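Hi R.,

Here's the chain you asked about this morning:
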Amino acid sequence: MDKGAREDGGGGKGTRDTVDEGANKPNYHLKYTMGGHRKAVSSVKFSPDGRWLASSSADRTIRIFDAMTSKCCHQLEGHSSGISDISWTADSHYICSASDDKTIKIWDIETAEVIKTLRGHTNFVFCVNFNPQSNLIASGSFDESVRIWDVKSGKCLKSLPAHSEPVSAVHFNRDGTLIVSSSYDGLCRIWDTGTGQCLKTLIDEENPPVSFVKFSPNSRYILAGTLDNTLRLWNYTAGKCLKTYQGHKNEKYCIFSTFSVTNGKWIVSGSEDHCIYLWNLQNKQIAQKLEGHTDVVLAVACHPKENIIASGSLEKVC
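And here is the predicted structure, written out as tokens:
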């Protein structure tokens, strides 16, 4: 796994959509450019209430921006190495972060202070997510394990020997009963949160490294990014790949992708050609290509209520 993935250089942008009703296509345009990070922006995440945009960076900091004005309101500092991923609690009051210092930190964004530091991984922590109830955290690491943590106590409840290569992503389904993980070993795995049992393993015939995975909003499908310039939508219950999305470039970095559902249904992804791509979820056609970044776009996120996309790149901006 290239550590430059979500790790070296860095920046972010916010784009807003106006609808082209006749063509039924998105029409996003650049609204803000947010700077401040000294190295690559590794992850961008809107708070569930839509008020904040958080960005993490290889510069070891997290910046909290007002999602509507782009003003930086807080900077969180405390990790001793770069940060690869962040996740919000459901109440939008706390963030957890995954770092190359092998720890996960939980932050109070109002006080900008660390509430807890979770230790146990034996290599870089690369991905992290709260469950919907925000009482558990799932993390994935270069140590090839997935860990499940109790937020209140800060203790590791389960360490799953999940993969045979670094874990690139972890995500809970809508009710928190399942976790999906992905890895450079070419596998996506579905886990029972309560028991830690592996319920399903998804593998493509060509077995490319899986650089990202997440559940769809209704949790019936998973979206997986692979290092063969492809996104795949899976029916994980049946173990079948339903749709593929191509046209972007992704051969080296762990690039975020997501679902946009506030105005139509689009698949959104960063790309190594410095652009952001939107596909029509159903017909798989590229609906819009957003230009503006000057380096690899690692991170994308969609606002929970408004037609806004945030992106982060190696050139240090959002």
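One quick note: The two ends are 23 Å apart (CA to CA).

Cheers,
M.
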